[in-house]
Amino acid sequence: MILSNRFRNLLLTASALMSQSVDAKTADKQKQNATPERPNIIFILADDMGYGDLACYGNEYIQTPNIDRLARTGTSFTQAYAGSGISSPSRCSLMTGKNSGSTRIRDNFCYAGGIEGLKINPRGDTIIVHRANLLPEDTTIATVIGTAGYRTCLVNKWHLDGYDPGSSPNHRGFDEFYGWTIATVHSNSPYYYPYYRFHGDSLINIRENEHDAHVRHNTEISTDDAIAFIHRNKDNPFFLFLGYDAPHEPYNIDDTSWYDEHGEWSVNTKRYAALVTHMDYNIGRLLGTLDNLGLRENTLIIFASDNGAAVMAPLKDLNCGAGLKGRKGQLYEGGIRVPLIVNQPGRVPTRQINNLVYFPDFMPTLAALTGSSDAVIHDTDGIDISPLFFGENIDTGSRYLYWEFPGKQRALRYGKWKCVTVKSDAPLELYNITEDPCEQHNLASENPKLVKQFDEVMRKMHKPSANYPLPGEFDKPAKSGKKHKK
């Protein structure tokens, strides 16, 4: 959407006035240290990790002792959902508190407008694509938490800048940023052993990885950045968003020693499992830092994945999808149901719960936990689920949870029911997820009135978008574009 200069000025003026109104409160809050009741928050997000990849979620192959310990001493959710079936819209949903029927970014590529750039596809072709990006008027979790005096930092993967260099995390609410951006393609190339990396707006070099050397793995680099941020802010309340790349393809890690004894496994299977275990090891380093600094009881940790396992993942060998139907890129359970673990010693009880929660819930939830200003939260599609973190029970199932890939797929969850289609020209399917979590028995023909009701709800949940017009206005998304000629 293109905004007039006059409208942009009005937005900036309103933002400045709002900032003045909360400055006094923020100044007072900045003097306060984190406490168990107003904790530091660390949100750890894995990339393309399946619902069944963790031992604490039933995996019998992959070693994840540190994440398992978080689950064993905290609360794990069995019906938690990502914001979408792929990265950018899922992260946009998480960061803005809106579902994919109303977010700024609703697919990895936009169907109209956006900024043109280059992408290398899995076959090695460089193609021209268009992407949307978060705009200055989009409120992020970091913007909200910042009003409570928290120091905010995003490490590694953002994926919401499109091809706009000015849309990096440090220009969208975060005080600090260490990682890579879409806009600068080579900033995370080669994947997992990068030579270039952003520190704010400065592009620095990882000298050890010069000339494609595989010395410092990106999971290690990201953890080092996160630990350094914690050390600098040990006396201030902070919000750290740690977006690991693991175990996103290409499955690139040299050390597979955890799994070398499995001679029957393919190289990719070993590397996939090693990426998960290596991430778990580094999460252990992070937890050790909190313990050593005496911050553990004052820090709430949240762990999740941005969507389900990818089609390239060893779904059958390692049971990454835990038997759920579908995968990354689809709105079946295997594409959007994700592990979610919350842990804070002394406050979060040890339990496993099946409440329906999803990514839009985190903006109101983290705002409540940090005492952030309500004045900066607009039109969230989520609810405050923080009582679930601390042993209470609230009804989260008597509401509609909605997802879409505009004009392609859509899904709605309400209580035990899920209505879904993964093809634009296919009829809606209906499943009783309580009795049939793997979506094997389509009940649409037996419940036509219910399907019609859900169809009407989904149509209302879709909000118009310049980048994602309704079917018929544009025949094909821009991502189907031509190969780039060098």
Overview of the molecule:
It contains 11 helices and 17 strands. The protein has 486 residues and is α/β, with parallel strands linked by helices. It folds into 2 domains: 35-397, 3-Layer(aba) Sandwich (Alkaline Phosphatase, subunit A); 407-461, Arylsulfatase, C-terminal domain. A hairpin with a 2-residue loop joins strand 15 and strand 16. It starts with a helix and ends in a 25-residue tail after the last helix.
List the helices and strands and how they pair.
Blueprint lengths: L4 H26 L9 E7 L18 H8 L2 E7 L5 H10 L18 E6 L5 E6 L9 H6 L4 E7 L18 E5 L15 E4 L2 E4 L12 H15 L5 E6 L23 H26 L6 E7 L9 H4 L14 H4 E7 L7 E3 L3 E2 L3 H9 L15 H4 L11 E5 L3 E6 L2 E5 L7 E4 L15 H14 L25
Parallel strand pairs: 1-9, 1-10, 2-12, 2-13, 5-6, 5-9
Antiparallel strand pairs: 2-11, 3-4, 6-7, 7-8, 10-11, 14-15, 15-16, 16-17
Helix pairs in contact: 5-6
